[in-house]
Design brief:
Blueprint lengths: L1 H9 L4 H6 L19 H4 L21 H29 L5 H30 L11 H16 L5 H7 L12 E2 L2 H14 L1 H5 L1 E5 L3 E7 L22 E13 L2 E3 H5 L5 H23 L14 E3 L8 E5 L14 H10 L2 H4 L3 E4 L1 H7 L11 E2 L9 E2 L2 E5 L13 E4 L1 H4 E6 L3 E5 L6 E14 L5 E5 L4
Parallel strand pairs: 2-13, 6-7, 7-16, 8-11
Antiparallel strand pairs: 1-14, 3-4, 4-15, 5-15, 8-12, 9-10, 10-11, 12-16, 13-15, 14-15
Keywords: Signal
Organism: Mesorhizobium sp. WSM2240
InterPro entries: Phage_capsid, Phage_capsid-like_C
């Protein structure tokens, strides 16, 4: 069996392919059945070569060619999965349920998840190639600030840095006690990396502000309108109802450490190093908050709002569709696909253009088995390496911060997140240099202020695990 793995892998084995599998360190798992040569031959032979924390920045000089090979394996494995799953369903209907067949389906299903993650990881790395300066003319004040910040970062010398922050228009007043603002290019690098590793950040609308709070007036509907002729009088119409949404920012931090020897090495790109170190920490904290944060000194997540059955939808709450089963998505009379289709159409047609699904990998494995009344699977693999999988022909993204399947849980969201969820970034990433607390290491206490919340309650719908 090992020779099968090696034979399938040798044709496509490159360093960049191994990097693509860094997302799933357990890819060395081997199947025990004949399906081992499908998918696993490509995915299982590469040991993780990269530090997971550095994904998206280290060894990303990938032309993307190998993603096509992974995609081909994914599509082939999905066909095998459909055959195995269809056989399991047919056997169950005949009263011939076989635990071996069930385990086979689950193994292939798990392999599909790993291959999909490998493609997603490759796309993340390719997106990270765009991280960096945009070129063009360089503002001399910003260049001077970047040079001074580099000196401060490496040596702790901050002479004149406060004044340069103001000259570079990074702030109107400097506060060294709260840390120094990183150069604009470094902040852009951090933000771009965050966008490649955070599902919600890649889907939602993002706005930068210079204060701690953003307020937005939202029309509740009710403004009257009508048709009139060119010379006819215009009767007075009803005034629209407005409501104010307030988005507060909370402080997120990371505290990476470096040796002075590393900082003294002029070959080390400190901007990239800092972005690499803090971006994953920020992304993990942000990702959890955008889904389930309570809004206290952090963003308010989509699952932290009041909910209501979609038939009784009211503004200020997120509408949901029930799975029809008290503690699961399926049972003997509910196939799961009906609830997914109902959720799809619960979203108004105006929002469905640009809508996507959000759920965890584990829930994805369950949904992948769902078929419609004509026997077509709701889930489909990508049709191109740069694309994502779909459910009902809408893109699907995974975020393991989403709920697991359980009674009264909300494991699946479907919506136009660009219109429905707003992420607020307060401009400015600050760094405090600390060479004293943990000698001989130099710590860089790095902070960023982020907020977020639902801005349009019609644009996001949830699936609730409940009988009704």
């Amino acid at each position: 069996m090992k020779s099968l793995f090696m034979g399938a892998a040798l044709a496509v084995l490159t360093l960049t392919l191994c990097a693509a599998f860094t997302l799933a360190p357990d890819l060395a798992y081997a199947f025990s059945g004949p399906e081992a040569a499908i998918g696993t031959g490509l995915a299982m032979t590469c040991a993780p070569l990269l530090n997971h924390r550095a994904r998206g920045l280290v060894a990303i000089r990938n032309d993307g060619g190998n993603a096509n090979a992974i995609l081909a394996e994914l599509q082939k494995t999905f066909e095998t999965f459909k055959e195995a799953n269809n056989k399991e369903i047919a056997d169950l209907k005949k009263g011939l349920g076989d635990v071996v067949q069930t385990e086979k389906v689950d193994r292939i299903n798990a392999e599909i998840t790993k291959l999909q993650n490998a493609i997603d990881e490759t796309n993340v790395m390719l997106a990270a190639l765009k991280v960096g300066g945009a070129g063009g003319a360089v503002d001399p004040d910003k260049k001077a600030h970047a040079t001074a910040f580099d000196r401060f970062f490496r040596k702790g010398v901050d002479a004149g840095l406060s004044d340069l922050e103001v000259k570079a228009k990074l702030t109107t007043q400097s506060d060294p006690d709260g840390g120094y603002l990183v150069p604009e290019e470094m902040e852009t690098t951090v933000d771009r990396v965050l966008g490649t590793v955070s599902a919600m950040r890649s889907l939602a609308r993002i706005m930068s502000i210079s204060t701690d709070t953003y307020k937005k007036l939202v029309g509740m509907g009710g403004a009257g309108s009508g048709w009139v002729g060119e010379e006819e009088s215009r009767p007075e119409t009803d005034s629209p109802t407005l409501r104010e949404l307030i988005f507060n920012t909370g402080e997120i931090y990371a505290n990476p450490a470096a040796t002075q020897k590393m900082l003294d090495d002029a070959r080390v790109d400190v901007a990239q190093w800092l972005a690499d170190e803090v971006a994953i920490e920020f992304a993990e904290q942000e990702g959890a908050a955008f889904v389930s944060g309570n809004g206290v000194n952090k963003p308010r997540g989509i699952l932290a709002y009041d909910t209501v059955a979609n038939a009784s939808y009211a503004w200020g709450k997120l509408g949901y569709i029930a799975s029809g089963v008290a503690a699961a998505l399926t049972d003997g009379t509910h196939n799961g696909s009906d609830a997914m289709i109902d959720l799809y159409y619960a979203l108004k047609s105006g929002y469905r253009n640009g809508a996507s699904w959000l759920l965890s990998d584990a829930v994805m494995g369950t949904v992948r088995k769902f078929k419609d009344g004509d026997g077509n699977y709701l889930w489909a693999p990508p049709t191109a390496a740069a694309e994502v999988a779909t459910i009902l022909q809408k893109p699907v993204y995974t975020d393991d911060n989403m709920s697991a399947i359980g009674a009264n849980a909300f494991p699946i969201a479907f919506g136009n997140f660009q219109r429905g969820y707003l992420i607020i970034d307060r401009m400015g990433v600050r760094v405090l240099r600390d060479p004293y607390t943990n000698k001989p290491y130099v710590h860089f206490y790095t902070t960023k202020r982020v907020g977020g919340g639902v801005q349009n309650f019609e644009a996001i719908k949830l699936l609730k695990v409940a009988a009704s």
